């Protein structure tokens, strides 16, 4: 029996450990299907998943499996049953399962633990002490309640502990502490409950228990520690200590000696002890021991004297730090209890539960002494098999619920009322190597502990229990898995991943061809230009930011991805297992966090013309579209808010330029709104902006925030475009999600009383909403996301760009918690942390470092065919217990057989740089393990593109004898026969190369992207874009750049690329009726459309050389094309004159078409 079938055996309980890509979801589906085949009722099976997406995928795959069985041929179905070790004669039973599952009341129980707990509490609300109509809070409402709880906390009349913390902590740290109360409430609550229970077991008050944990028994305040130290000082020896210091004849020591003498005199005079002064004698301002107290001139007696004073002082300092920590922790937890009480009270008043309440209430219901037996009795007849997915990420509370549900499965306590056809079972699948959600409470060692727990139960009950392991991966090719094994080779690395020193081993189930694993050399910072040595007086240090390592790495990646897509690098099709040309959707780029590198990658891919899906998560308040709408609402509340008004005017809402803003600000003795009103009469752009702002000011007072935003986004401008369309045109498709979420936030805000604009703005101040954009496999865009977001995904080509010296975002947490329930406040003072806090920090750092290794493992195992590892170096080096990711990758290559790794020259478009002590090399070499995937020929690419298409896709449609409509492309608008030399050839005549049309396509592309950029950036962007075109040489690149920039910098063409112009406008419609009575329709795409107040100008770019002097000398096809555009635009703008012109890059020159020429060509199109 293979491991998958052994794990799916419905007769035995099982804890399955599965490597990445080894088919754990298939095993889960097989097990549920086999349970149904053996007679288990669908409603008696519970499958708990980690996410809603996982639940939906598993349910879809199960229904697909059962549905396939329902319609399969006998022989095929029998073979399917045989493969999963079921009786091939049970055909009728297998076919009936699909209908049985569909007809199950409430459907199959494949759901998240939160969904299960919600249903459980709704079934037993009175037993759980809840209102039957309780509601579950979403994140927005929960955060709003938490914010109200903080406001209530700060207004409590009595708050000595609060006031102490405000005095002790800086304002920023106190605010940080309150933020932790909100976002780590459940973790703090769990640790605090553990401490309270431990204190009760030890028969101690909580304060006494806390001080004892810090070795302060009896409890002492910091002041009491200092007083005790002062009492045990040998004051008579103070002058001797001063003389010992004076023997080291330095200016500093003379001052310290004088300090000691002052302290001695003050003590004799009965003055209070100045502990800080004595501290300054032995320690620097940074809290470090002074090194210059003793020197070679000091006698041994002097050294002994100093040491006798230093040791008790060091002990006192440690005790004072511990006392401060204990006191601050006590006050913080008292403050937290106040916050928690207010927060819980707010939830009770609204009859609501948050997500953690669902877990804790369900756990209490199932585990409590009063009602648990009754609830389990009522549930027992309805639950026979429990399956847990992603066991390594299941938290302790969630496992407690599973234990309560399955405890009787092995004890047999409910046997008299339980009648099952097969043994009740528990099944869990997970991989401790993929536990990456520690910040959500997941503990990978808990999964192993639960395995031992159930093994013990099964052994005691003499019931079968298996622990198979799936090591064979069906996702990745052998070279990818071989590299993964080498990257984590070593007992320390293995222990961090799977908690044993046993080596990590993967077995590949695929072998279609060799994979590609490549390690690029790191990119280093470049030296800042020295102004004294530079020949260019304009070079300044700020220029160095343009060549930051992260940006250069993103440029290099974008170049290679674009090149491989363009050249047809092959990948293996997942379904057919055959080679096909890659496309953008085959690339998955994984980063550790959404930082500058993340943004650079998305930006550079767009610049390179590679389709990219954008960020996988967007923080709403950080997106410019949200900020623009927020600024508009501020203007509507206060028109004199010039800063917000300036933001609105520059936004897509008004689309004014920087020059326009400067013009407005030069108006004397006027606010920005007043200046806009004054200049609106003489400037159409200002007039349109003034109309929009005036309309918004009139609408806002009478609308809710949701209604107002809806009206704004659906309002049309003079060209007929909605404001939503203007946002998308300017900011990209991803802003659609931002606009939708803004409307959603406004609608949710009404549920918490944020109805008007000012309420909505207040809500926005504390809103931390994130938009999670699903990026499943199958699209045609490069996916860029964090490794956490990639869990469960895969791609033919995975790129892992690595930043140096990663630092955890949680290193600044003030409240530190540990796995064993410890909890202390870290408010580091001048003395530093006490040993207990330092120990907690060290434990946390090690825990996070191990999770970082598991995160690296998850990233590597997303790759199917190709894995590219790259990175850059910075000033911050890794200082954790393990190497950083790039060093781990380099170590992995070093462990591979030398003959299996080859060095290959890397085609570079940026400077890679070198370490400070080395010379930079012009050549860069990557390390290659495996083989490069071959490029596919043009013929093979074309064949693959057509492979598998149904016949109707390529078959000619059957003519309709009743049809009286003729559709024409813009180049086929005339019925007359024309000689080839009189026809403008199709721009698709040449696919590659610097031929006539290859050149034209590149010029068109630059005219499309450059006008949207700031004028100062256009030339640089054009040069970079052309440099990435592999079919051009330097001379050709320069010729095209000059041709394009010659047009864009020519004042004669300013209107063509001004704010009233739009690029790439699609157009379709009827241009007339031909001589046969058929309606003639045309479709095309206008290169540039200029819409003015009285006229419309349609422009088409032409790159022919030499350019004709007049439009009459141009090719007839060009003339007919422009005439067709004019005919359609006249219908759209009947009140404006419509003109057409050809813009020739050779010259450059603009040749307008006369009205007579347009009408002549229109008559030809219509056949008159």
Automatic annotation (TrEMBL):
Residues 973-993 are annotated as: Disordered. Pfam families: PDDEXK_1, UvrD-helicase, UvrD_C. One of its GO terms (biological process) is recombinational repair. Residues 1-477 form the UvrD-like helicase ATP-binding domain. GO terms for cellular component: cytosol; DNA helicase complex. Its EC number is 5.6.2.4. The keyword DNA damage applies. ATP binds at residues 18-25. It catalyses: ATP + H2O = ADP + phosphate + H(+); Couples ATP hydrolysis with the unwinding of duplex DNA by translocating in the 3'-5' direction. Signal peptide: none annotated. Residues 494-792 form the UvrD-like helicase C-terminal domain. PROSITE patterns: UVRD_HELICASE_ATP_BIND, UVRD_HELICASE_CTER. Keywords: ATP-binding, DNA damage, DNA repair, DNA-binding, Exonuclease, Helicase, Hydrolase, Isomerase, Nuclease, Nucleotide-binding. GO terms for molecular function: 3'-5' DNA helicase activity; ATP binding; DNA binding; exonuclease activity. It is an enzyme of class 5 (isomerase). InterPro entries: DNA_helicase_AddA, DNA_helicase_UvrD-like_C, DNA_helicase_UvrD/REP, P-loop_NTPase, PDDEXK-like_dom_sf, PDDEXK_AddAB-type, Restrct_endonuc-II-like, UvrD-like_ATP-bd. NCBIfam families: addA_alphas. This is DNA 3'-5' helicase.
């Amino acid at each position: 029996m293979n491991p998958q079938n052994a794990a799916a055996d419905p007769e035995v309980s099982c804890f399955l450990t599965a490597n990445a890509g080894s088919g754990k979801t298939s095993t889960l589906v097989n097990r549920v299907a086999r349970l149904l085949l053996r007679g288990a009722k669908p409603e008696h099976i519970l499958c708990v998943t980690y996410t809603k997406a996982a639940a939906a995928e598993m349910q879809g795959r199960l229904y697909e499996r059962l549905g396939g069985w329902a319609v399969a041929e006998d022989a095929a179905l029998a073979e399917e049953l045989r493969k999963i070790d079921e009786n091939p004669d049970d055909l009728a039973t297998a076919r009936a399962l699909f209908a049985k599952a569909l007809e199950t009341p409430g459907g199959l129980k494949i759901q998240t633990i939160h969904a299960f707990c919600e249903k459980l509490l709704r079934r037993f609300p009175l037993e759980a002490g809840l209102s039957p109509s309780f509601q579950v809070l979403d994140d927005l409402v929960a955060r709003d309640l938490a914010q109200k709880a903080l406001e209530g906390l700060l207004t409590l009349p009595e708050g000595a502990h609060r006031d102490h913390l405000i005095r002790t902590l800086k304002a920023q740290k106190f605010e940080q502490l309150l933020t932790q109360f909100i976002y780590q409430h459940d973790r703090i609550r769990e640790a605090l409950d553990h401490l309270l229970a431990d204190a009760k077991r030890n028969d101690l008050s909580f304060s006494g228990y806390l001080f004892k944990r810090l070795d302060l028994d009896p409890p002492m305040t910091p002041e009491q520690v200092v007083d005790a130290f002062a009492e045990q000082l040998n004051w008579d020896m103070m002058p001797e200590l001063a003389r010992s210091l004076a023997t080291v004849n330095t200016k500093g020591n003379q001052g310290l000696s004088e300090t000691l003498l002052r302290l001695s005199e003050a003590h004799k005079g009965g003055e209070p002890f100045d502990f800080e002064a004595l501290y300054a004698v032995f320690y620097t301002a940074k809290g470090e021991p002074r090194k210059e107290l003793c020197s070679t001139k000091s006698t041994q007696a002097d050294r002994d004297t100093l040491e006798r004073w230093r040791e008790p002082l060091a002990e006192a300092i440690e005790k004072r730090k511990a006392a401060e920590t204990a006191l601050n922790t006590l006050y913080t937890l008292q403050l937290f209890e106040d916050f928690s009480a207010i927060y819980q009270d707010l939830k009770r008043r609204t009859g609501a539960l948050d997500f953690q309440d669902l877990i804790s209430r369900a756990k209490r219901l199932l585990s409590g002494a009063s009602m648990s037996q009754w609830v389990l009795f009522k549930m027992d007849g309805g639950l026979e098999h429990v399956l847990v997915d992603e066991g390594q990420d299941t938290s302790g509370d969630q496992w407690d619920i599973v234990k309560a549900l399955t405890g009787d499965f092995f004890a047999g306590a409910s046997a008299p009322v339980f009648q099952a056809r097969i043994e009740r079972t528990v099944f869990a699948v997970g991989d401790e190597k993929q536990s990456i959600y520690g910040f959500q409470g997941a503990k990978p060692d808990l999964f192993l502990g639960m395995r031992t727990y159930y093994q013990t139960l099964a052994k005691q009950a003499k019931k079968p229990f298996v622990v198979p392991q799936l090591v064979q991966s069906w996702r990745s090719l052998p070279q990818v898995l071989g590299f993964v094994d080498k990257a984590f080779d070593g007992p320390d690395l293995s222990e961090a991943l799977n908690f044993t020193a046993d080596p990590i081993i993967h077995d590949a189930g695929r072998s279609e061809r060799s994979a590609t694993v490549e390690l690029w050399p790191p990119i280093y910072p470049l030296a800042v230009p020295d102004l004294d040595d530079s020949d260019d007086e304009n070079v300044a240090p700020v220029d160095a930011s343009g060549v930051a390592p992260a940006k250069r790495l993103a440029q290099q990646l974008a170049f290679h991805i674009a090149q491989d897509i363009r050249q047809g690098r092959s990948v293996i099709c997942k379904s057919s297992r055959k080679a096909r040309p890659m496309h953008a959707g085959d690339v998955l780029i994984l980063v550790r966090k959404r930082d500058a590198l993340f943004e650079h990658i998305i930006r550079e891919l767009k610049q390179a013309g590679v389709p990219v899906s954008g960020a996988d998560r967007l923080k709403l308040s950080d997106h410019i579209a949200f900020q623009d709408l927020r600024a508009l609402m501020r203007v509507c509340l206060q028109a004199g808010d010039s800063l917000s008004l300036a933001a609105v005017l520059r936004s897509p809402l008004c689309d004014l330029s920087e020059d326009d803003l400067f013009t407005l600000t030069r108006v004397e003795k006027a606010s920005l709104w007043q200046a806009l009103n004054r200049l609106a009469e003489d400037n159409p752009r200002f007039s349109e902006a003034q109309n929009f702002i005036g309309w918004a000011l009139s609408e806002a007072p009478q609308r809710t925030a949701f209604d107002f935003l809806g009206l704004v986004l659906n309002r049309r401008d003079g060209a007929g475009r909605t404001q939503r369309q203007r946002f998308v045109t300017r900011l990209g498709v991803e802003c659609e999600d931002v606009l939708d979420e803004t409307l959603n936030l406004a609608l949710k805000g009404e549920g918490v009383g944020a109805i008007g604009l000012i309420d909505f703005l207040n809500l926005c101040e504390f809103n931390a909403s994130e938009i999670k954009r699903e990026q499943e496999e199958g699209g045609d865009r490069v996916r860029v996301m964090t490794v956490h977001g990639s869990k469960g995904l895969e791609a033919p080509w995975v790129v892992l760009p690595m930043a140096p010296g990663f630092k955890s975002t949680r290193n600044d947490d003030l409240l530190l918690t540990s796995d064993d329930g410890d909890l202390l406040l870290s408010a580091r003072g001048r003395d530093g942390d006490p040993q207990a806090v330092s120990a907690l920090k060290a434990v946390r750092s090690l825990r996070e470092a191990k999770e970082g290794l598991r995160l690296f493992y998850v990233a590597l195992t997303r790759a199917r065919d190709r894995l590219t590892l790259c990175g850059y170096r910075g000033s911050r080096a890794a200082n954790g217990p393990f190497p950083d990711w790039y060093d781990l990758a380099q170590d992995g290559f070093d462990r591979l057989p030398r003959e299996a790794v080859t060095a290959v020259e890397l085609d570079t478009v940026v400077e890679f740089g070198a370490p400070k002590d080395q010379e930079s090399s012009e050549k860069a070499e990557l390390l290659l393990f495996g083989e490069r995937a071959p490029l596919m020929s043009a013929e093979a690419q074309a064949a693959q593109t057509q492979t598998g298409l149904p016949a109707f896709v390529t078959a000619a449609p059957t003519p309709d004898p009743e049809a009286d409509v003729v559709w024409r492309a813009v180049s086929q608008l005339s019925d007359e026969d024309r000689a080839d030399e009189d026809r403008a050839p199709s721009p698709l005549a040449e696919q590659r190369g610097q031929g006539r049309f290859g050149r034209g396509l590149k010029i068109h592309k630059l005219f499309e992207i450059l006008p949207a950029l700031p004028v100062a950036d256009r030339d640089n962007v054009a040069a970079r874009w052309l440099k990435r075109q592999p079919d051009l040489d330097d001379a050709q690149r320069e010729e095209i750049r000059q041709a394009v920039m010659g047009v864009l910098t020519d004042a004669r063409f300013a209107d063509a690329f001004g704010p009233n112009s739009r690029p790439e406008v699609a157009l379709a419609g009827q241009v007339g009726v031909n001589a046969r009575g058929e309606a003639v329709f045309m479709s095309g795409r206008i290169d540039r459309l200029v819409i003015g107040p009285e006229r419309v100008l349609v422009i088409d770019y032409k790159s022919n050389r030499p350019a004709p002097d007049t439009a009459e000398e141009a090719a007839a096809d060009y003339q007919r094309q422009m005439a067709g555009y004019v005919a359609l635009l006249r219908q759209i703008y009947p009140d404006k004159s419509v003109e057409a012109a050809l813009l020739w890059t050779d010259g450059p020159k603009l040749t307008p078409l006369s009205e007579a020429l347009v009408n002549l060509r229109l008559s030809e199109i219509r056949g008159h």
